[in-house]
Amino acid sequence: RITLEGINLTNFLWNETLSIRSISLDTLQLNLRRALADSALGGEDSKLSGTRIDSIRLPGIDHVRLSRFELDHFRLNLSGPDQKDTVASFFGDRLLVEGVGLSADARGTGAYLVPELAGLELELSRQRYTLTGASYELYFDRFRYRHSDKNVRVDSLAFRPLMDTGSFAEAHAHSFETYTARFSRLDIAGFDLDRLLAQGDLRMRSVAVDRLQGSIFRDKTKPYETERRVPLPDDALMELEWPLRIDTVSLRHASLEYREKVQESGPEVLVGFPELRGRIVHIVSGAAARDTGDTLKIDLQGTLLGTLPVEVSLQLPYATDHFHMKGLTRGSS
């Protein structure tokens, strides 16, 4: 069902301006199929890179104003060349966009309209994103963005596996790990949406994570895969082709739990950091990371098993083969 309100046709006929007060959509499903050339060909053309969405072509229209756009109960499925092969899915209960517009290109060509985002406010509620190949899903309860101050707030975010550890064990011939993360609130400052739309790269000044609860489970009852290579954080960022830059990430009131299964029967090894805080600076990806002279720095402070104060500092210069790590326990002999 679609509902349109407040359509001004007079301005459209005389001034080529389309003004709509609100558009409401209920229950929408989109199925997108990825072309064979995008998914099967190797080389540079198949790599993930930034996507530019800086203009749109609407012949006969000089200006578009939309005060409110609301979408309830929607689903997006992305499939490979074979339509039965679902690569990813995105589910959402509600999407609300306010204060957006399009205007003629400032260069005066009249062929394309560019976004007007000064009054943009975006809100998403109860969203779930699943990536089939990775066997994980990402969920958040609420996402809010206001373009006037470039701030983002995300409430109740969870990153969790789609299978339990028993199902993971059946699906893996070698030792494996599963990861779970939850936090109550995430605040982003300096989210540069204009740059993302115009140039395809994502920049944020700071990310503050509140009450992160992280859990890592490792099953060592199976043989280790000798050919497996786990990259260091700086190497993983350099391999990431999506342009990303975050100046600072801070952790507040966090906790981390590590569990390890070393034999089929018997208790698991458990190591916990119930009080954890920290800071990560200079997060850069792709070509920018390979060309920069910056160093990825990770500083963490916490208490091991709730009693022993621990500090860890990592420095990983980009595009080098070395790193520096320092650890400290206070009050231990």
Can you give a write-up of this model?
This protein has about 325 residues and is mainly beta. The protein is about 10% helix and about 55% strand. It contains 6 helices and 16 strands. The protein has a 16-stranded mixed sheet that branches. The longest helix is centred in the N-terminal third of the chain and has 7 residues, at about 10-15. Mean pLDDT is about 80; it is low at about 35-50.
Put the structure in a nutshell.
With 333 residues, this protein is mainly beta.
Please report the distance between the alpha carbons of the first and last residues.
69 Å
Point out poorly predicted stretches.
Answer: 37-52
Shape: globular
Q: What amount of the residues lies in strands? A: over 45%
Helix content: 10-25%
Characterize the main sheet: 16 strands, mixed
The secondary structure category is: mainly beta
Give the helices and strands, then pairings.
Blueprint: E1 2-8, H1 9-15, E2 17-33, H2 36-40, E3 63-79, E4 86-104, E5 113-116, E6 121-131, E7 136-146, E8 151-161, H3 165-171, E9 176-189, H4 193-199, E10 202-210, E11 213-219, H5 233-239, E12 244-261, E13 269-284, H6 286-291, E14 295-304, E15 308-317, E16 324-329
Parallel strand pairs: 2-3, 10-12, 11-12
Antiparallel strand pairs: 1-2, 3-4, 4-5, 4-6, 6-7, 7-8, 8-9, 9-10, 9-11, 12-13, 13-14, 14-15, 15-16
